[in-house]
Amino acid sequence: VRRRLQRHVHRARGDARHVRGAYRAAVGDFRAGLATAREAGDRRHEVRALRGLGGHVLNALGAPAHESAAYLQQGLRIALSLGDREAEADLLARLAILQSNRLQFTEAVGLGRRAVAAGRAARSDRALARGLDGLKTPHAYLGEVAPLTEVIDELEPLLRRLGDLKLLEWTVFESAIPAVAAARWDEAEHRM
């Protein structure tokens, strides 16, 4: 029980430190959580720790994107072996965002589509929201207005129902892109 609690604490504290911008401390927590999960053979917590390390924290510290991607790929292999479609959707979505940032758009769109498929297969609104967020990013970066609008039209109400303000703020902001593309300046300004 103590070790299980320890794994939860490392992840929760890492997430809290990440949100506060204490990236080095967050990385320390995620790495400690990964070590305790591996020691205990807890594959689900291992996936969560790998997701934390594959998130924004390492990039914020200047690490190359391929380092974050390596953690995500490890987590994805484990999630697939466990049949954890929710984790699969989340990891694929983050990989899609990383590939978008690296201007690897063909791969990013493919990863985003896989993330959405995993989210739908998970039958979880949260997993679907993660998947749609991963598909939204490459469409936004590419300026693909029709597919971006389709994704946002499904994602925004879903995020509002879930109360996921973190993803919602980006979704609403990026929903201005189709308005900008059509020179609907008042609407774009309102969305931003």
Question: Roughly how many Å is the radius of gyration?
Answer: 17 Å
Per DSSP, the total helix count is 12
Largest sheet: none
- How much helix is in the residues? over 70%
Unreliable parts:
none
User: Strand fraction band?
Assistant: under 5%
Order of helices and strands: HHHHHHHHHHHH
Please identify the structural class as seen in this structure. Answer: mainly alpha
Number of strands: 0
Estimate the mean pLDDT confidence: 94
Question: Can you describe this structure in just a few lines?
Answer:
With 192 residues, the chain is mostly helical.
Structure description:
The chain has twelve helices and no strands. It has helices at residues 2-20, 23-40, 43-53, 56-60, 65-82, 85-101, 105-122, 125-142, 145-162, 165-174, 176-181, 185-191. The model has no long low-confidence stretch (mean pLDDT 94). It has 192 residues and is an all-alpha fold. The radius of gyration is 17 Å and the shape is globular.
